[in-house]
UniProtKB/TrEMBL annotation:
A GO term for molecular function: water channel activity
Segments crossing the lipid bilayer: 36-63, 84-106, 126-148, 160-180, 200-222
GO cellular component: plasma membrane
Lineage: Bacteria, Pseudomonadati, Pseudomonadota, Alphaproteobacteria, Rhodobacterales
Natural source organism: Aliishimia ponticola
Membrane topology of the entry: Multi-pass membrane protein
Entry keyword set: Cell inner membrane, Cell membrane, Membrane, Repeat, Transmembrane, Transmembrane helix, Transport
Pfam families: MIP
Record's protein name: Aquaporin Z
Tree of life domain: Bacteria
InterPro entries found in the cross-reference section: Aquaporin-like, Aquaporin_transptr, MIP, MIP_CS
Gene responsible for this protein: aqpZ
Annotated compartments: Cell membrane
Primary subcellular site in the record, as a coarse category: membrane
Entry's family note: Belongs to the MIP/aquaporin (TC 1.A.8) family.
Amino acid sequence: MMQKLLAEFVGTFVLVFGGCGSAVFAAGIEGVGIGYMGVALAFGLTVLTMAYAVGGISGGHFNPAVSLGLAMAGRFGFGDLAKYWGAQVAGGIVAGLALYLILSGMDGFEGVGGFASNGYGAASPHGYGLMSVLLIEIILTAIFLIVILGSTAPSAPVGFAPIAIGLSLTLIHLVSIPVSNTSVNPARSTGVALFADGPAIAQLWAFWVAPLIGAALGALIWKALSPSEQDPA
């Protein structure tokens, strides 16, 4: 179990450090910044690469919502859920701290600003309200779980799941960065919210509630689509 938890810690660290780091350091540079497309690819690539690197150890969840959805679909034990959540959140927080320490070393540093955090209302990249943010986070997390469950099902081609999962996370970011700055992952949201300026901490609840609801919904939809899939004993 310790190896599994360490793999989840490392995978979540890389996801937050790579995905949020791309937004913090590289997205907004005038003329050469990577923009929304680059950030979306960064998140997708972190999941794809880490799923291949350590997914064989822990299952490659890197996300409390994914762990919940897998448990509800019968792919993961509820008894290990709290342990996985702890490792994932810890990985996200350490990544957020590392990003903060790097950014604070910039010449003329005056604060981290939004720090790639998620938000609604004035904290949304384009001013989307709470209901819009909750809805898009629920829908996209449900889609993410359907892709994960489908691409890792026994009937799916072997070895391609990380590609499908990484590409789906890229698509999710392309849709929702303008709305919520894209969470679909409470550990990712927590890791940067702790260090961000503004209302990120006060709004963090939404980026736990919506992804967890979406994950549960995605698991239920998958079970309806694949009734022959048996729960583990």
